[in-house]
Specification:
heterodimer; A: 304 residues; mainly alpha; 11 helices; 67% helix; 4% strand; B: 269 residues
Chain lengths: 304, 269
């Protein structure tokens, strides 16, 4: 193996890039984008590994959990390609290192991909196309389709190449400390972003009312004595701004109480529970179906 | 308006494309402004469908699949409402009714999406078996089957609407109880936690847990965007790695001399 170095050509990398278009194809609740990830890397793995054992090991390590924004998967694929290439050429890169780099990068990059593509580019193009289409102009959909795909494909190819070159640089560093630093840095960043994502994106809301307190006179806006018309509205707004309540009683829900400890506490507890269940070898599918049942059940009981 | 067989096949084909894209989210064939227009194109009712697509696109601007969360299904909403609009034969006058139908359809589509994504879990286990054999071909095959399943998720309801007409579909949807759809949406909000829990189980060590806590607490400040949070995370990681090296070398016995260039420089001082 050492006498002839296997390397990935531009054609191989283009083929991987094209396949990564289908990265979400077998998206599932257990390991999310894992099938698509393996599917994307296959042209490269085919070139790098020839024996059945090597191929089986390569497929298995790339069927591990993976999930990020579908477009920002490209730079991660680039780095992984460089790592796999060096590994096939005998560099001491193990499964843990490859997995560490993948997982470390996916969280923070999703944190970039979602706001950039879903909340910026898509609404802007979408609004433009929609307003054209609503007036019956066929340019709307055409413009949207062409621009969106140009931006997407350009982004995917160039970031994948960027990741490939950066990945090669990481492994060129003989001592391996850079790789260690990258892996550790990635997992710090990963944990930090996971903490934020759980706070922002796991939604658990309880609706039961804990207390209804009758407010003292003067603590709320007295709607009977307020003036009519715009004057009344203005005085009401002024009173509210100075801290007066809109109604004559203050309603506190269970959610308000939990949020006053730290917003998102319930989401955190739910995540910890899931981690514990997973460690107890409960199948993720059972947890997922269970959560749906709990969601419907508690909603019917008016708890959520 | 009646469609001929050829037009029906084309409509189902567009539905299939939209269904695939509903999961892939790449070419955006499932976006209302594209899907509705394509259906208008193949049925010869371009302008009303174009207007419907534009209006639905406005509604769907903020719908996005984030993490494991499933957004209301733009694919089913746009395909089915466009077909209903075409079948009604009302032209531009029917656009508003079609929009009203689209929203419950988007929620019903959510249910189909959840089912398809659960079925895909089974498919991934077939992939595991193929990986055991080292067979690239079988892994590819299962992945393609999963994509086809996603296409059928929209193509089958579209064919059904074409076969039975719009009214039965609408009354079927009306029977779907609100408590079920709302409850499922609540469950969907919680399911995201499972994916995050898996990742945490994979990368968490004693050393990095404090950073998790910090991320969680800081995210409660609504003014911090994800980019801002990402920046804080990068800075923390850089500072931590730099500082831990400085500490290591000043202890003397630490990992210096392993060819660490920074450590060597520090040793000279």
């Amino acid at each position: 193996m050492a006498d002839q170095k296997v390397s990935l050509t531009k054609k191989d990398r283009l083929s991987v890039c094209w396949r990564s278009t289908f990265i979400q194809g077998s998206w599932n609740y257990e390991r999310m984008q894992n099938g698509g990830w393996a599917f994307s890397l296959i042209p490269a793995l085919k070139k790098l590994y020839k024996t059945k054992e090597e191929r089986s090991a390569a497929l298995k390590r790339h069927l591990e959990f993976f999930n990020t924004h579908p477009y920002v998967a490209s730079p991660i694929i680039g780095v992984t390609l460089a790592l796999e290439e060096d590994r096939a050429n005998g560099a001491p890169i193990d499964d843990v290192m490859i997995q560490g780099v993948k997982v470390g990068m996916m969280g923070p990059l999703a944190g970039i991909g979602d706001p950039v593509f879903w909340f910026t580019v898509k609404p802007i193009l979408g609004a433009l196309a929609a307003s054209l289409a609503m007036s019956g102009n066929i340019l709307g959909p055409i413009l949207y389709f062409v621009l969106w795909n140009l931006i997407r494909m350009g982004f995917m190819w160039y970031t994948q190449e960027f990741g490939y070159r950066a990945g090669a640089k990481i492994t060129d560093d003989v001592s391996g400390t850079l790789l260690q630093d990258v892996t550790k840095g990635a997992s710090i960043l990963g944990m930090f972003v996971l903490g934020s994502l759980i706070q922002r994106w796991v939604s658990v809301k309880f609706t039961p009312v804990v207390s209804t307190v009758k407010l003292a006179k003067g603590a709320y806006i007295d709607w009977d004595t307020i003036g009519n018309g715009t004057k009344g509205i203005r005085s009401a707004l002024e009173q509210q701004a100075s801290g007066l309540s809109l109604g004559s009683s203050k309603v506190t829900t269970l959610q308000d109480n939990l949020d006053s400890l730290i917003p998102g506490l319930a989401a955190l507890l739910l995540t910890l529970l899931c981690m514990w269940l997973l460690k107890k070898k409960v199948s993720p599918i059972v947890i997922i179906l269970g959560l749906f049942v709990v969601g419907v059940g508690l909603h019917v009981l008016h708890v959520m | 308006m009646a469609l001929n067989a050829f037009q029906m096949i084309l409509v189902v084909l567009v539905a299939f494309l939209a269904g695939m894209e509903g999961i892939l989210d790449e070419f955006h064939f499932h976006q209302p402004v594209i899907a509705c227009t394509l259906i208008g194109l193949v049925t010869g009712q371009l302008v009303p469908c174009l207007i419907l697509g534009g209006s639905l696109q406005m509604l769907a601007l903020g719908w996005a699949n984030i993490g494991a969360a499933v957004a209301p299904d733009a694919a089913l909403a746009s395909v089915a409402s466009a077909i209903i609009l075409v079948l009604s034969g009302q032209g531009e006058k029917g656009v508003n009714t079609a929009i009203a139908v689209a929203v419950p359809l988007a929620i019903a589509g959510l249910l189909l999406t959840i089912i398809a994504r659960t079925l895909a879990t089974g498919i991934v286990h077939f992939m595991d078996k193929a990986a055991e054999e080292g067979s690239f071909r079988k892994v590819e095959m299962w992945h393609i089957i999963a994509i086809i399943m996603q296409g059928l998720r929209i193509a089958i309801p579209a064919a059904l609407i074409l076969a039975v007409g719009a009214d039965p579909v609408r009354s079927l949807l009306a029977q779907m109880p609100i408590w079920l759809t709302d409850g499922l949406a609540i469950g969907g909000g919680m399911v995201v936690a499972v994916g995050y829990a898996m990742v945490i189980n994979m990368i968490a060590t004693k050393e990095v847990w404090p950073f998790f806590a910090l991320g969680f607490v800081l995210a409660a400040i609504p003014q911090l965007t994800l980019i801002a949070l990402g920046t804080i995370g990068v800075v923390l990681a850089l500072v931590y790695i730099t500082l831990s090296k400085v500490g290591g070398s000043s202890n003397g016995a630490g990992g210096a001399g392993t060819g660490d260039p920074v450590g060597d420089i520090i040793d000279k001082y």
